[in-house]
Amino acid sequence: MNTSLKGTGLRALGLLAIMMIICGVLYTGVMTGLTRLLFPEQSTGSIITVDGVAYGSAFMGQPFTATNHLWGRPEAWTAIQGDDGTLRLYGAPTNLSPGDDAYGAEIKERVARIAAAHPDQGNNPVPVDLVTGSGSGLDPEISVAAARYQVGRLSQTTGKSAAEINQIIDECTRGKFLGIFGEKTVNVLKVNLMLDGILK
């Protein structure tokens, strides 16, 4: 082999090794350390923990169905048990088209079920986010209107007054991004933990 070519190859391998250390080890380590330091809650998944018990992530939707809980958007969870016995949860949208007959039937069933659970709402339309899934299938928040829609049912099943429930909803409402982008949203998990008296 040509000595010059061999030297070039060795330099290239040396440069590759240096860049792997810088980009793959040092940079990753520094960024991980900084995020743990500056954003300790977010960097570990924003897990809501009370008295040592983890109840879930503030950024991950859960399928609440109990009548004394606030209901969120339809979630698309798949639980798979690993060889070690632990459950791994995967979420994804259904990818059904609005033009699909199966999708239309699914939406009608959800509308009928939610309307039947909230007779106090009369002919008020069911908020769209209570019957449609998000793009990720794991949206942890709903609109303020969707949360208010459920106040009557929650008042009956929790023993709390409508005013108390509305106060909890207000406390769990996040404003628009930078005050102008998007809409106000309500974190479903936080509301339910407050309804259960777990989160203050």
UniProtKB/TrEMBL annotation:
GO molecular function per UniProt: ATP binding; P-type potassium transmembrane transporter activity
Protein name: Potassium-transporting ATPase KdpC subunit
Keyword field contains Membrane: yes
Keywords, ordered alphabetically: ATP-binding, Cell membrane, Ion transport, Membrane, Nucleotide-binding, Potassium, Potassium transport, Transmembrane, Transmembrane helix, Transport
Any one cellular-component term (Gene Ontology): plasma membrane
Main localization, broad class: membrane
Compartments it resides in: Cell membrane
Family statement drawn from the similarity comment of this UniProt entry: Belongs to the KdpC family.
Summary of subunit composition and partner proteins: The system is composed of three essential subunits: KdpA, KdpB and KdpC.
Membrane topology reported for the UniProt record: Single-pass membrane protein
Function: Part of the high-affinity ATP-driven potassium transport (or Kdp) system, which catalyzes the hydrolysis of ATP coupled with the electrogenic transport of potassium into the cytoplasm. This subunit acts as a catalytic chaperone that increases the ATP-binding affinity of the ATP-hydrolyzing subunit KdpB by the formation of a transient KdpB/KdpC/ATP ternary complex.
UniProt cross-references to Pfam families, sorted A to Z: KdpC
Transmembrane segments: 12-39
